[in-house]
Design a protein that fits this description.
Chain lengths: 182, 99, 92
């Protein structure tokens, strides 16, 4: 995960960059194709842009660990749960007696800092009844729409799915300043 | 009306219902946090359904891809904005409403 | 289908207007900031519907720009503009 410069230019150290570079170039080309809705002439600008974008992204974010099977499992999970989240909150908004019992809980994060954590924070806000409100050291404050439901187990499932997607493992939670209920 | 038209119309109308739910939640819910719940989730599902309804009508794969790209962007924006507003509100000392 | 697109676009516009009531009323600055969120999603949906209804592909690009701008402006606004002290407790 070091920069290219740290390692020197041996073949072994270049191959991973080459692979993720190719993958990203394909991804950027796909985005360009969508943006221009397949206009053929646009590739005159598009090809250099894709190359520049790939190089810049390799310099800024050298490697992202991810697992294709993890992504394949996460996407349907996310689509289903976020749809459920929408239905859940819509039902509460339409209901005459407004069935909500909001509160704050603190969740001890087991994901490693960085991209996986940011991803988790953003995902939580779109899932049923949870809204990530504050991220401190190892602790995520979550605003819950209905505290009568068991949110903690749901959050654990999400965390597990995110960890699998980024091919990382979960470390043991340190309670520290993070008490689960306040 | 073809079968695709019917399918697309159902998705679009369902999307409209979620947008209505989002607005209703925005007006009825008691504090900024619960309103964020309503807006973020209901509106994103609403937009998702509207985009799905339009995507099945799309003339090319690239157009369909662009629609999905827009949805992804709005999803990302919505999630991060709601986190920022909620964390800033907590910092500012706005207490969450309790029943 | 044309009628449905226009009807839905109008409906969403009314939604936006209804949501503006919350934005104008507040009571806290945070509530006003919800406008960014509301406008982001609803305006994108309206633009996409109009693009389909009138067969103007360029409106889809406008929607794309709106989606990007909504994100950028909201982040900038939350981080920089919201600095006046907030003392009100939000309950009604």
């Amino acid at each position: 995960m070091n920069r290219i410069a740290d390692k020197g230019w041996s073949l072994d150290s270049v191959i991973p960059y080459f692979r993720s570079g190719c993958l990203r170039a394909v991804a950027f080309a796909l985005i360009w194709w969508m943006l221009t809705t397949g206009a053929v002439g646009s590739w005159l600008v598009g090809v250099p842009m894709v190359l520049i974008a790939t190089l810049v992204s390799l310099v800024l974010v050298p490697t992202i660990l991810w697992s294709p099977s993890g992504v394949a499992l996460f996407v349907p999970f996310f689509v289903w749960r976020s749809l459920y989240g929408g239905v859940d909150v819509a039902w509460r908004a339409f209901h005459p007696s407004l069935p909500i019992a909001p509160g704050l809980i603190e969740y001890p994060l087991r994901l490693s800092p960085g991209l996986p954590r940011v991803f988790m924070v953003n995902t939580v806000s779109l899932l049923p009844g949870t809204l990530s409100a504050e991220l401190r050291a190892d602790c995520l404050k979550v605003h819950v729409l209905d505290t009568r439901k068991n949110v903690l187990s749901e959050l654990m499932v999400v965390e597990q799915a995110v960890a699998r997607m980024f091919a990382t493992s979960l470390k043991n939670a340190e309670r520290g300043d993070c008490n689960e209920q306040i | 009306m073809t079968l695709i038209d019917v399918f697309s119309a159902v998705l679009l109308i369902a999307g409209g219902v979620f947008f209505l739910a989002g607005t209703l939640g925005l007006l009825r819910f008691p504090d900024v946090y619960t309103r964020l719940h309503a807006l973020t989730k209901a509106d994103n599902v609403g937009l998702g359904l509207v985009i799905a309804g339009l995507a099945v009508q799309a003339q090319s794969w690239a157009t369909m891809g662009k629609l999905l790209l827009i949805w992804g962007l709005v999803l990302l924006a919505g999630a991060s904005i709601s986190h920022l507003i909620a964390s800033r509100a907590l910092q500012r000392g706005i207490r969450p409403w309790r029943r | 289908m044309q009628t449905l697109y226009f009807a839905l676009a109008l409906f969403l516009l009314l939604n936006l207007v209804a949501g503006m009531w919350r934005v104008l009323r507040g009571p806290t600055v945070a509530d006003r900031m919800l406008a960014a969120q509301l406008f982001g999603t609803t305006s994108v949906a309206i633009l996409l519907l109009l693009a389909q209804a009138e067969n103007v592909a360029a409106l889809r690009d406008v929607a794309l720009v709106f989606a990007l701008l909504a994100a950028v402006t909201a982040v900038a606004f939350v981080r920089r503009a919201w600095t006046d002290p907030e003392t009100k407790h939000d309950a009604n």
